[in-house]
Amino acid sequence: MTAKANALKAQGVDVISFAAGEPDFNTPEPISDATIEAIRSGFTKYTPSSGIPALKEAIVDKLLRENHIKSEPAQIVASCGAKHALYNIFQVLLDPGDEVILIAPYWMTYADQIQLAGGKPVVVHAFQENDFQPDPENIKAAITPRTRAIVVNSPCNPTGAMLPRSSLKEIAALALRNDLWIISDEIYDRLVYGGEHQSFAALSSEVAEHTITVGGCSKTYAMTGWRLGFACAPVPIAKAIANLQDQMTSNPTSFVQKGAIVAFRLPHSDVEAMRSEFEARRDLVVKGLLNIPNVNLSVPMGAFYVLPDISAYFGKSIANDVEMADYLLDSAKVATVPGSVFEGPGRIRISYATSRSNISAGVERIREALIALD
Ligand code: PLP
């Protein structure tokens, strides 16, 4: 949808895009300055494949300070984005036929990466009535002798749901009892609105032994194009990931690592300015969507997405969310992503990582387009 929207924009069409999963801010200057300085000073050669020691230290410090996770540099592998970190993890953990539990709606990359590793995604659904919190009983029912891992993404793309400590504990207990890995994708850990982000690996040392935490620079520091993410895993897994990466990409870009060190040590106030703007946008988009008759949603607690239910508008002309997203782009010139992409049919995903004026105008366009269907 982003590509379609951009193609229309290139033709001069006034499109408002709610499709992209990236902050619209510029990368904070201290990060760019450190990176430019690294290039100028010749920091442009190969580095250790899993990242330079100073970056690993910065990640260890960040995990302790912000996530209350105790780790050591040997547990950290820096990769070319969290996506790369996740790809490595599935490759290392899965044998053909191994099952991985996903909680739907989920970020679609997990399912594809699991299959690329020969594994099988097993989907457990979470529902809007419960604010997209998974029911541990349903997770328990999905566990088989082939289950190897469960992926948890809190705050979640696409729902914005954030799991409380009590849910984490229940899922962790299941993982420990069944000897499963918890793959905890915490890429949106700093973009939370109201609640407090909780990390699995902070629950106990026993849980940490079963957890691989994934994070990165993309979302918190508006660095999507830089490609810098990480995994924090028990040492044998970290070693296996590092060995794999050594034969795939080698190190993440040398000078990007220098920028990432500054990012992970950025003063709280610099991140807070972006977080609070996202929160104001969250409020704006939620208010606007709830103003549309028969649209309902779960108020997102983190990340920068909302996944409203627009199925009340399905009928003669629009049969499903894919057709709805096409209709909204064609008639209202608003780009969204159909919910079924995330196994959340009947919904559209709206990314509010765009200006407040775009949000107001875009939601109004959606309202008019939906009402015209009545
Ligand atoms: N995990 C989730 C849930 C995401 O939404 C994304 C990006 O959209 C990523 C991971 C990947 O982030 P990165 O840019 O670090 O590869």
CATH superfamily label of the largest domain? Type I PLP-dependent aspartate aminotransferase-like (Major domain)
Task: Work out the oligomeric state of the chains in this entry.
Answer: single chain
Bound molecules: pyridoxal-5'-phosphate
Q: What is the third-level CATH name, the topology of the largest domain? A: Aspartate Aminotransferase, domain 2
Shape: globular
Radius of gyration, in Å, reads 21 Å
**Structural class of the secondary elements?**
alpha/beta
Sequence of strands across the biggest β-sheet? 2-8-7-6-5-3-4
CATH class of the largest domain: Alpha Beta
Q: What portion of the residues fall into strands of 2 or more residues? A: 5-15%
CATH second-level architecture of the largest domain: 3-Layer(aba) Sandwich
The parts where pLDDT drops under 50 for at least 5 residues are none
Q: How many structural domains?
A: 2
- If you average the pLDDT, what whole number results? 97
Largest sheet: 7 strands, mixed
List the helices and strands and how they pair.
Blueprint: H1 2-10, E1 16-17, H2 29-40, H3 53-67, E2 76-79, H4 82-93, E3 99-104, H5 109-116, E4 120-125, H6 136-142, E5 147-153, H7 165-177, E6 181-185, H8 205-208, E7 211-216, E8 229-232, H9 235-246, H10 254-264, H11 268-290, E9 305-306, H12 321-332, E10 334-335, E11 337-338, E12 348-351, H13 356-373
Parallel strand pairs: 1-10, 3-4, 3-5, 5-6, 6-7
Antiparallel strand pairs: 2-8, 7-8, 9-12, 11-12
The structure holds pyridoxal-5'-phosphate (PLP).
